[in-house]
Design goal:
52 residues
């Protein structure tokens, strides 16, 4: 199995070298930026919580 085949099978997003600019303009990228980590503490909040 190639790396690309594995990524497709596991549902990861990817793009080829040289296609980054196109991906950054895509609807999928916009969705990821808006939704990944939503509802999670910020790094600062997590560190503050763990250091108590």
């Amino acid at each position: 199995m190639t790396h690309e085949e594995w990524m497709k099978k596991e549902g990861f997003d990817y793009c080829y070298q040289g296609e980054e600019g196109e991906f950054l303009k895509s609807d999928r990228y916009k969705y990821l930026v808006e939704n990944v980590g939503k509802g999670q503490n910020s790094l600062e909040e997590a560190l503050r919580t763990n250091n108590k």
